[in-house]
Amino acid sequence: MTTGVFEALLDDLLAHDLGCAPHVVARIVAEVTADASTVVAVAQKLDQSQRHGLRPLPSPLPMVDSIASLFADLELLPRDRELLIAVSMRLDDRVEPLLDFDGRSAHDLAACTVSDLLDIRAGRVRLADPRLAIWLRSTTGASAAVRVHARLHRVFHARGERVDADWHLARASLHGAPGTAAELTRIARSLSEAGANERAMHLAAEAAAHATGAERDEATAVAGVSAIAAGFAVEAVSLLSGLFPDAQEHHRLQALGGLLIAQTHLHGAVPRIDPLGLRPEGAGEEERYLWARATAFAAVLCAERGDREGMRSWIAALREGAGRTAADADLRDPVVALAWLIAGDRDVDAEIHGAGPLTGGMLRALHAAMDGEIEQGLGFLAAGGSGIGVEVDPFVAGFERSPLVGAYRAVVEVLLIMWSGDIGTARTKLMRSALDLPVTIPFAGLAAMIARRLDLAVLGHLGPFARSLTAALPPAMRIDDLVDRGIEAFLAGGFEKAAAFMRLWRDAGAPQTTLSVPGLEEAVLVGERDRARRRRVEPPGISLAQDLRARMLSCSDEEWRSVRAGVVEAARSIPSPFSRGRVEAMIGTRCLITGDVARAREHLEAARSLLEVSGATAWARAVAMRLARLQADAVGGASSGDPLATSRRIWEPMLTTRELEVTMLAVAGASNRDIAESLHVSVRTVEVHLGRVFAKLEVRTRVELTVLAHRIGQYV
Asked: What is residue 125's three-state secondary structure?
């Protein structure tokens, strides 16, 4: 099914104020088909946590009118109904146990009165229409369901298949079946390690419901950790917090790392607790490792949120904890390197890498990209995602195949593709990943920000995927959208509005993630202090593009004439077509301001071509509009917008506040005396300010200053 179908569904859900995480919508579609009205009806019966992917969906999904009407005329014999119920209830879809349950042969089953409701092939059997499971379960009484589970238990017990037998025995028991807990928990662990974390969660939760004491605590820990590995943060907190403070220490330590991840995602910050207060005393090797790994999770989570003080505290605990385990440096060193990298110190332990998908492939990929080797970085990610011989990663041991780890890898892959300048591919990759994985959890919701910037680059506005990912973020992680609004205004031609948004962003301290995501550097000059503080993790080509834009924003017209050739030459070395296209567009604009129309047109044409190649359709369209305006001016004169407002934006980084006030009054036609009276200063002070302005802007008279202001308004 194409992403376009899901875009339409997500848009429809948002219109009904039912924002859903894309992977939740994909799950609903898989079970009820892509009919928009049915998807909306199902979403209306889910709570917000379920719609946002923070709790598992009910199984089966809720009954809605369209499904009820679909099967309203279906009449089933008791034997056939029990057969269909059994198909909907089993843990797997093998045909042999079903034949044992029903008593008919495969040939008879294929020819029976309900054969058209079954899909039988290659030794497997399932319901032909997944919506039938919803109808069956909603129209089947509890006693009938228990009876089918009991029969399935006997079938699997006779076949010697203990896991299935115990599952159905537990589901059939009205008073608890504690003997089933140990085996269900064991299988849940195996499923979790294989990446089937949601199924593992359900099995372990069922085990916990039938167990007591330490056995219940163990099953609860497995269920809760599997829940966060699947992305279910609310479910994980509900399960794991119940183990504190009374469960056995081993099970608390099993739960600690998952609980920290879940609470941090929901509340926006790592819980303020003393790492050493949770340290196991006199415990065994496994307990010490579990504590050390929990401190590793907390260190990286702090780094993702820019909490360097908290990160240092957890790293100190990690150093102590890892040193008391066999993992030691294999756990400690790559996690410390990863945390410092995410925090923005790209050169700390740059040569240290671990093994497995995160401290191995992901860390190597980021370092390769920062060295300008983005294709090599993508190769590291591809090797880790091949599914062949997945290495053990001490950081996430046992969860290498989990959806959460997959989400981290997917977000980094999209980031690297975006850094390479292939904006269209990055957007498509992110949309597809969002349909399968809980992508809002990694890096403090970075995927939502990336989705918004990619939508703006391609569409010029926020699309359904970006808005749905934003809606799925917990309240503590809402996106600061000043830059997004600025980009949208800029691409629509509202340059003054864009500049206003960017000034507000700069006044707020120019907040941005350490993992570089394209902003709107064209609209405002970020001060040296802000640039030094930003600690951006990005390839050298993107850093060069930012430096060139800052240079063009801050230099005067006279300086531009002397530095233009160097800027043009440097721009040619930027490998990303998106980054270079934006620099070329800015070169063209500077050439226009100085009256060099021929060169300006050349650079703007290059910018349009580069942006089109990158897939940044909206940016290319914005440059095309500027070229069309330039052509119209050449033919006969389209009038510009407000030249004084545009000039104010351009000159603001170059002049003091008082110089700018004097300048804007002067180009508006006020005399020196009028300016003096307006600003409550002397005429001599006005003359001094104008003299400084003339020197900074390389003009000699008020007439030249006014002409310059109008030329800026015409072309910028």
From this structure: strand
